[in-house]
Amino acid sequence: MNPAILHISAEPIGAGQERVCYQHPDDESKVVKIQKGDNDTQTRRELALYASLARRGMNDFEHIPRYHGKVQTNIGNGFVVDRIADHDGAVSRSLWWHFERGYPVTEFLPYLEELRRYLLDKRIVFSVDMGRYNILLQKLSPSRARLVVIDGLGNHTAINWLDNIGFFARRKIRRRWQRFIGRLHNYSAETMRRHEGSPRKLEAAYRRQQPGP
Fold first, then answer.
1. Domain count across the chain
2. Strand 93-94's sheet: what is its strand order?
């Protein structure tokens, strides 16, 4: 086999509508995202965002995975990003995983506010289809956690040159964030109606106060 081609033989660790995610065979701290079919829209907009961040010299990857470049594999072309895992090595769980187990969205509001401020500060535009599956709660230590957006990054619109201008980028982020938060509250309410018993609370070490304005 060509040594320049990365050989992937394991089962996927996650899948979306357009891409499949595999553990990097040579580096457990990274994953490889590979397209399912011919539609590369999500990949193109995500890579365009990372290219824009690189041009701006942005080097703060607190709430999005770090990009490590494109790669050829035995099952198709892909690109490499950080694997988002908890301090015990387990893959971090999504907001939707928590909602389905009885944790209401209110438990995550301080983390969501921290994420909102980060996206605004770094001018990271996200797609309108970013949702509950795309955001993981990463437990960094027994007492510290953060939200990480693993999919839905980048702008899906054809005319997006205004994203390079801070005022317009932040206006778009605020507008989309309001719709996104509305959807999260709806998802949470729907799952709580199906959940029996009182709402669950995060472990005491991970419960945080809502930050001030």
1. 2
2. 93-94, 135-141, 144-149
Q: Tell me: do 105 and 180 sit in the same domain.
A: yes
Buried b (16+ CB within 10 A) or exposed e, 70-86: ebebebeebbbbbbbbb
| Rounded Cα gap, residues 18 and 26, in angstroms | 24
Per-residue pLDDT band at 18 (split at 50, 70, 90): confident
Indicate whether 110 and 179 sit together in one domain: yes
Task: Kindly state whether residues 99 and 175 are assigned to the same domain.
Answer: yes
Higher-pLDDT residue of 129 and 49 is 49
Residue 169: burial class (beta carbons within 10 Å; 0-12, 13-18, 19+): buried
Domain span including residue 54: 14-82
185 within 8 A of 149, measured Cβ to Cβ: no
What are φ and ψ of residue 36, in 5° steps? -80, -45
pLDDT confidence tier of residue 167, bands split at 50, 70 and 90: low
